Amino acid sequence: MTATDRSIELVSAAAQAAADKLAHDIVAYDVSDVLSITDAFLLASAPNDRQVKSIVDEIEERLSKELDAKPVRREGDREARWVLLDYVDIVVHVQHSEERVFYALERLWKDCPELELPEDAVATRGKAAEHARQKEAEEAAETAEPGGGWR
Fold first, then answer.
1. Sequence-distant (≥ 6) Cβ neighbours of residue 34 within 8 angstroms
2. Is 151 inside any structural domain?
């Protein structure tokens, strides 16, 4: 069994919405062969809680307007570290980058086929690592004294 056309349509629209809000490392898996409760998982991450919430809001708004789809369940809003949107056909996970690394959902679903995503979503791959390197460089620069010594 493979993901339905409707599931693929939802995943594609949600991935584009996440990419438009600068999500990192967007990937989707067809889990229909291993789970009976949903067809696909969409994973995305962001470097801070505010951006996680913004991505989730955009996905929800876009799917509602374009595809008349509303989640049957939304969890994790309070802390905005890992928000789950359950559309029955698909489940969207938007995680803070730290949670994404810690829980490593990709490891769990690595044997499932990846779904094709819009070009903008594919272009987000590796952005979390790039962001982490940039943040480390900025922090190192803040601690270095102008003369090259350390504080």
1. 111, 112
2. no
